[in-house]
Amino acid sequence: MDEQNRERVALFRYGIIAPLLNEQVDRATYLAEVSAKTHEVPYYGSKEFTPKTILAWLRQYRRNGFDALKPQARSDRGQSRSLSGELQLHLVSLRKENQGMPVTVFYDQLVQQGEILPQDVSYTSIYRLLKKEGLLGKGIVRSPERKRFSHDTVNMLWQTDLSDGPYLRTGDKKIKTYLIAVIDDCSRLCTFAQFVPSEKFDGLRTVLKEALLRRGIPKMLYTDNGKIFRSDTLHLACAELGIHLLHTQPYDAASKGKIERLFGTIKTRFYSLLKAKPASSLEELNERFWKWLEEDYHRKPHSSLNGKMPLEVYLSQIDQVRMVDDPAKLDPIFLKRENRTVKHDGTFSLNNQLYEVPERFIGQKIEIRYDEQGVHIYEDGKPVARASEVNFHDNAHVKRKRPAISFADMQGMDRKGEDRE
């Protein structure tokens, strides 16, 4: 089992124990319910687990953290998975565009269009994926019955989402922005928010890291099913930090009422200020927004808080907040992860850029983790080397090492020359 599969199994196990870890459920009742079910486990398939096994995972996590949930490394490293995380997201996106199509027809179309190869991805794998995502049939999507709720402890639950932001004009160009925000369910405090230029995961990573550094670590994080919120990087980061990552049911965005209300307040009160005086750059937009957030939103009495201010409620429970003990630990936790096979010339490609690595990795399948700061090579969850961008100009002038010829080789060459004479 390779490192990626070990992490997926650990994430599955963490998902099982998270309600127990955060004391969200009655232990005996929860163990009885979970042990009575059959679970689809990454790599292993259908499995059932006893309460004893689940409690063993819980003890392992409490003693040694997320790594303790990983299966022990085996000798079959390097085997590829039939459905990678990116492929699953892509297939789910295609299915949502063709939800009324029978699954058998959908599978045949994927093969015909070259999205998958039948020898690599079976019909059963596609069926299981669509079943898990609730995308087997067209059906009628009904709004689920829900009751209003609110946690009475800060950092018990955070909600996060992405919303369309205002357009910026720079010269003749019109640039679209997006707002990513995180809100504390109890205090309605916006733990952090920022306007970003794209819907990519990089923006979410920046916002979450700032929120964690400024306002501590929540027990649960509640998101929708958007691509960036389903990323493997987010799942792994939450597991490393002991955060239970929760997703809304498909087509049920209304269940994140508090973050939607925050977006509505921002549009009503902050965007009106932008109309009177538009921002000329992304930097200016964020500076003005953060100022408004601290001076206006956080210090306005909320009717849902019995007339109290979000900052007032948050600070009243500051002694219960679990802060990040070492900010430097957040950087490696939020690195993106990929697998690559190193070519014979010691290079691999990532995001249309060629990178080179030390000779010992030639021909090997390696795990890389990266962000804007650099690309690192990992083995068994540990960084072992750094990849560097290939500079074709410099490489053309590098003096190559030639293999040394031994004295015995020289004698052999001389004898061959004598024989020819």
From TrEMBL:
<dbReference type="Pfam" id="PF00665">
    <property type="entry name" value="rve"/>
</dbReference>
<dbReference type="InterPro" id="IPR012337">
    <property type="entry name" value="RNaseH-like_sf"/>
</dbReference>
<dbReference type="InterPro" id="IPR015378">
    <property type="entry name" value="Transposase-like_Mu_C"/>
</dbReference>
<dbReference type="Pfam" id="PF09299">
    <property type="entry name" value="Mu-transpos_C"/>
</dbReference>
<dbReference type="InterPro" id="IPR001584">
    <property type="entry name" value="Integrase_cat-core"/>
</dbReference>
<feature type="domain" description="Integrase catalytic">
    <location>
        <begin position="140"/>
        <end position="318"/>
    </location>
</feature>
<dbReference type="InterPro" id="IPR036397">
    <property type="entry name" value="RNaseH_sf"/>
</dbReference>
<dbReference type="InterPro" id="IPR009057">
    <property type="entry name" value="Homeodomain-like_sf"/>
</dbReference>
<protein>
    <submittedName>
        <fullName>DDE-type integrase/transposase/recombinase</fullName>
    </submittedName>
</protein>
